[in-house]
Specification:
8 helices, 2 domains, 5-stranded mixed beta sheet, 250 residues, 10 strands, alpha/beta, Rossmann fold, 5-stranded parallel beta sheet
Length: 250
Protein backbone atom coordinates (compact mmCIF):
# COMPACT_ATOMS: atom_id res chain seq x y z
CA UNK A 1 0.00 0.00 0.00
CA UNK A 2 1.30 3.47 -0.91
CA UNK A 3 2.39 5.74 1.92
CA UNK A 4 0.20 8.82 2.39
CA UNK A 5 1.74 12.28 2.81
CA UNK A 6 -0.13 15.45 3.84
CA UNK A 7 1.24 18.77 2.57
CA UNK A 8 0.36 21.87 4.61
CA UNK A 9 1.57 25.01 2.81
CA UNK A 10 -0.09 28.33 1.94
CA UNK A 11 1.69 28.63 -1.43
CA UNK A 12 -0.29 26.87 -4.15
CA UNK A 13 2.65 26.50 -6.54
CA UNK A 14 4.78 24.92 -3.81
CA UNK A 15 1.99 22.46 -2.98
CA UNK A 16 1.58 21.57 -6.66
CA UNK A 17 5.28 20.96 -7.29
CA UNK A 18 5.62 19.02 -4.03
CA UNK A 19 2.61 16.89 -4.90
CA UNK A 20 3.95 16.09 -8.37
CA UNK A 21 7.36 15.14 -6.98
CA UNK A 22 5.92 12.87 -4.31
CA UNK A 23 3.32 11.28 -6.58
CA UNK A 24 6.07 10.51 -9.09
CA UNK A 25 7.86 8.70 -6.25
CA UNK A 26 4.78 6.56 -5.59
CA UNK A 27 3.20 8.37 -2.64
CA UNK A 28 -0.44 9.32 -2.20
CA UNK A 29 -0.68 13.02 -1.41
CA UNK A 30 -3.20 15.32 0.27
CA UNK A 31 -3.10 19.11 0.55
CA UNK A 32 -4.10 21.89 2.93
CA UNK A 33 -3.52 25.61 2.44
CA UNK A 34 -3.05 26.70 6.06
CA UNK A 35 -2.64 25.40 9.59
CA UNK A 36 -6.35 25.21 10.39
CA UNK A 37 -7.19 23.31 7.21
CA UNK A 38 -4.17 21.12 7.83
CA UNK A 39 -5.35 20.15 11.31
CA UNK A 40 -8.82 19.36 9.94
CA UNK A 41 -7.33 17.19 7.19
CA UNK A 42 -4.92 15.53 9.62
CA UNK A 43 -7.68 14.49 12.04
CA UNK A 44 -6.29 11.89 14.41
CA UNK A 45 -3.40 11.21 12.03
CA UNK A 46 -4.36 7.60 11.35
CA UNK A 47 -4.72 8.22 7.60
CA UNK A 48 -1.29 9.81 7.14
CA UNK A 49 2.21 8.37 7.27
CA UNK A 50 3.93 11.77 7.32
CA UNK A 51 3.22 15.50 7.16
CA UNK A 52 5.23 18.08 5.21
CA UNK A 53 4.58 21.33 7.08
CA UNK A 54 5.53 24.87 6.07
CA UNK A 55 6.80 27.06 8.92
CA UNK A 56 5.82 30.55 7.71
CA UNK A 57 2.07 30.69 7.05
CA UNK A 58 -0.55 33.35 7.74
CA UNK A 59 -2.55 32.81 10.91
CA UNK A 60 -1.35 29.66 12.62
CA UNK A 61 2.34 29.23 11.84
CA UNK A 62 4.20 25.96 11.47
CA UNK A 63 5.38 25.57 15.06
CA UNK A 64 1.87 26.13 16.42
CA UNK A 65 0.44 23.70 13.85
CA UNK A 66 3.14 21.17 14.80
CA UNK A 67 2.22 21.50 18.47
CA UNK A 68 -1.46 20.76 17.70
CA UNK A 69 -0.56 17.84 15.42
CA UNK A 70 1.51 16.32 18.21
CA UNK A 71 -1.36 16.85 20.66
CA UNK A 72 -3.63 14.90 18.31
CA UNK A 73 -1.07 12.19 17.54
CA UNK A 74 2.25 12.18 19.44
CA UNK A 75 3.76 9.63 17.05
CA UNK A 76 3.13 11.72 13.90
CA UNK A 77 6.12 12.14 11.58
CA UNK A 78 6.33 15.83 10.69
CA UNK A 79 8.88 17.36 8.31
CA UNK A 80 9.18 21.12 8.81
CA UNK A 81 9.98 23.20 5.71
CA UNK A 82 11.14 26.82 5.64
CA UNK A 83 13.19 29.30 3.67
CA UNK A 84 13.94 31.23 6.86
CA UNK A 85 15.97 28.87 8.99
CA UNK A 86 17.93 29.30 12.18
CA UNK A 87 19.48 26.79 14.53
CA UNK A 88 17.12 28.02 17.24
CA UNK A 89 14.08 27.37 15.04
CA UNK A 90 15.33 23.88 14.18
CA UNK A 91 15.89 23.14 17.87
CA UNK A 92 12.40 24.39 18.74
CA UNK A 93 10.90 22.18 16.03
CA UNK A 94 12.88 19.14 17.21
CA UNK A 95 11.86 19.72 20.82
CA UNK A 96 8.23 19.72 19.71
CA UNK A 97 8.82 16.40 17.96
CA UNK A 98 9.57 17.31 14.33
CA UNK A 99 11.25 14.49 12.43
CA UNK A 100 13.23 16.64 10.00
CA UNK A 101 13.83 20.25 9.02
CA UNK A 102 14.24 21.00 5.29
CA UNK A 103 15.12 24.06 3.28
CA UNK A 104 12.79 25.73 0.78
CA UNK A 105 12.87 25.66 -2.14
CA UNK A 106 13.62 21.94 -2.03
CA UNK A 107 15.14 20.04 -4.88
CA UNK A 108 13.19 16.90 -5.80
CA UNK A 109 16.07 14.80 -4.50
CA UNK A 110 16.15 16.48 -1.08
CA UNK A 111 12.36 16.24 -0.81
CA UNK A 112 12.30 12.54 -1.67
CA UNK A 113 15.25 11.84 0.62
CA UNK A 114 13.71 13.72 3.55
CA UNK A 115 10.39 11.91 3.21
CA UNK A 116 12.05 8.51 2.85
CA UNK A 117 14.31 9.20 5.85
CA UNK A 118 11.36 10.34 7.97
CA UNK A 119 9.34 7.23 7.10
CA UNK A 120 12.28 5.00 8.01
CA UNK A 121 12.67 6.48 11.50
CA UNK A 122 10.87 5.62 14.67
CA UNK A 123 8.19 8.26 15.37
CA UNK A 124 9.46 11.02 17.69
CA UNK A 125 7.52 12.14 20.74
CA UNK A 126 7.71 15.78 21.75
CA UNK A 127 9.82 16.51 24.79
CA UNK A 128 7.24 18.87 26.27
CA UNK A 129 9.88 21.60 26.60
CA UNK A 130 8.45 25.01 25.64
CA UNK A 131 10.12 26.56 22.60
CA UNK A 132 11.73 29.97 22.74
CA UNK A 133 9.37 32.85 22.19
CA UNK A 134 11.04 33.73 18.89
CA UNK A 135 12.95 31.73 16.25
CA UNK A 136 15.67 34.38 16.43
CA UNK A 137 15.81 34.54 20.21
CA UNK A 138 19.17 35.58 21.63
CA UNK A 139 21.50 32.69 22.31
CA UNK A 140 22.49 32.12 25.92
CA UNK A 141 25.38 30.09 27.31
CA UNK A 142 24.31 26.48 27.38
CA UNK A 143 25.26 23.06 26.17
CA UNK A 144 23.53 21.90 22.97
CA UNK A 145 19.84 21.61 23.79
CA UNK A 146 19.20 18.31 22.07
CA UNK A 147 21.36 15.32 21.27
CA UNK A 148 20.59 15.22 17.55
CA UNK A 149 19.35 17.61 14.87
CA UNK A 150 18.06 16.50 11.47
CA UNK A 151 18.32 18.87 8.50
CA UNK A 152 17.56 18.06 4.86
CA UNK A 153 17.41 14.40 5.87
CA UNK A 154 20.87 14.45 7.51
CA UNK A 155 21.03 13.71 11.24
CA UNK A 156 23.85 15.14 13.37
CA UNK A 157 24.87 13.28 16.52
CA UNK A 158 27.66 14.60 18.72
CA UNK A 159 30.31 12.01 19.48
CA UNK A 160 30.67 12.49 23.23
CA UNK A 161 34.15 11.91 24.63
CA UNK A 162 35.66 11.35 21.19
CA UNK A 163 37.89 14.43 21.06
CA UNK A 164 41.49 13.73 20.15
CA UNK A 165 42.46 17.31 21.00
CA UNK A 166 40.88 20.30 22.80
CA UNK A 167 40.42 22.12 19.48
CA UNK A 168 38.41 19.30 17.86
CA UNK A 169 34.76 18.30 17.92
CA UNK A 170 33.72 15.02 16.34
CA UNK A 171 30.27 14.20 15.01
CA UNK A 172 28.52 11.35 13.28
CA UNK A 173 26.31 12.46 10.39
CA UNK A 174 23.73 9.98 9.14
CA UNK A 175 22.68 10.51 5.54
CA UNK A 176 19.06 10.16 4.33
CA UNK A 177 20.02 6.73 3.04
CA UNK A 178 21.20 5.61 6.49
CA UNK A 179 24.96 5.76 5.88
CA UNK A 180 27.08 7.10 8.75
CA UNK A 181 29.91 9.58 8.18
CA UNK A 182 32.46 10.86 10.68
CA UNK A 183 32.90 14.64 10.59
CA UNK A 184 35.66 16.54 12.36
CA UNK A 185 35.15 20.23 13.15
CA UNK A 186 38.35 22.01 14.17
CA UNK A 187 38.49 25.23 16.18
CA UNK A 188 40.95 27.60 14.50
CA UNK A 189 43.38 29.34 16.89
CA UNK A 190 42.89 32.61 15.02
CA UNK A 191 39.19 32.51 15.88
CA UNK A 192 40.06 31.87 19.53
CA UNK A 193 42.49 34.78 19.47
CA UNK A 194 39.96 37.09 17.82
CA UNK A 195 37.37 36.41 20.51
CA UNK A 196 40.00 36.94 23.21
CA UNK A 197 40.97 40.34 21.76
CA UNK A 198 37.34 41.43 21.43
CA UNK A 199 36.06 40.40 24.89
CA UNK A 200 39.27 40.82 26.88
CA UNK A 201 39.64 37.26 28.13
CA UNK A 202 40.43 33.88 26.64
CA UNK A 203 37.88 31.19 25.95
CA UNK A 204 40.12 28.14 25.36
CA UNK A 205 39.21 25.72 22.55
CA UNK A 206 37.81 23.18 25.02
CA UNK A 207 35.23 25.71 26.25
CA UNK A 208 31.61 24.80 25.50
CA UNK A 209 31.21 28.08 23.58
CA UNK A 210 33.27 26.49 20.82
CA UNK A 211 31.21 23.30 20.96
CA UNK A 212 28.13 25.37 20.10
CA UNK A 213 30.03 27.16 17.32
CA UNK A 214 31.14 23.82 15.87
CA UNK A 215 27.62 22.39 15.88
CA UNK A 216 26.23 25.56 14.33
CA UNK A 217 28.85 25.46 11.56
CA UNK A 218 28.08 21.84 10.71
CA UNK A 219 24.33 22.47 10.82
CA UNK A 220 24.69 25.50 8.54
CA UNK A 221 26.74 23.45 6.07
CA UNK A 222 24.19 20.65 5.89
CA UNK A 223 21.41 23.22 5.59
CA UNK A 224 23.01 25.24 2.81
CA UNK A 225 24.80 22.49 0.89
CA UNK A 226 22.60 19.44 1.49
CA UNK A 227 25.60 17.12 1.67
CA UNK A 228 28.32 15.90 4.02
CA UNK A 229 31.41 18.18 4.14
CA UNK A 230 34.19 17.12 1.73
CA UNK A 231 36.76 14.88 3.39
CA UNK A 232 34.62 15.08 6.52
CA UNK A 233 36.26 18.26 7.82
CA UNK A 234 35.19 21.80 8.68
CA UNK A 235 37.04 24.63 10.47
CA UNK A 236 35.53 27.28 12.74
CA UNK A 237 37.30 30.36 11.39
CA UNK A 238 34.90 33.29 11.46
CA UNK A 239 32.98 34.49 14.50
CA UNK A 240 30.23 37.00 13.79
CA UNK A 241 29.97 40.17 15.83
CA UNK A 242 26.58 39.06 17.09
CA UNK A 243 28.34 36.13 18.79
CA UNK A 244 30.68 38.36 20.79
CA UNK A 245 28.13 39.41 23.46
CA UNK A 246 27.36 35.70 23.93
CA UNK A 247 31.06 34.92 24.30
CA UNK A 248 31.45 37.77 26.78
CA UNK A 249 28.80 36.27 29.05
CA UNK A 250 30.10 32.70 28.72
Amino acid sequence: MSKRILIIDDEENIRRMTRLTLEAAGYEVGEASDGSQGLEAFGDGSKWNAVLLDQRMPGMDGLETLRHIKDHNPSARVIMATAYASIELAVDAMKLGATDFVRKPMTPEILRNAVAAALSKQPLLSSAVPPTSSPVAEKVPAAPLIQAITMNGFTIVESEGAWNAPDERRYTVQSPGGENYDVLVQIDEEAVGYVERMIGRRLPPENSFWTVQAQNLLSDYLWNEGKVPPRGRLIVKDIGRDELPVAARW
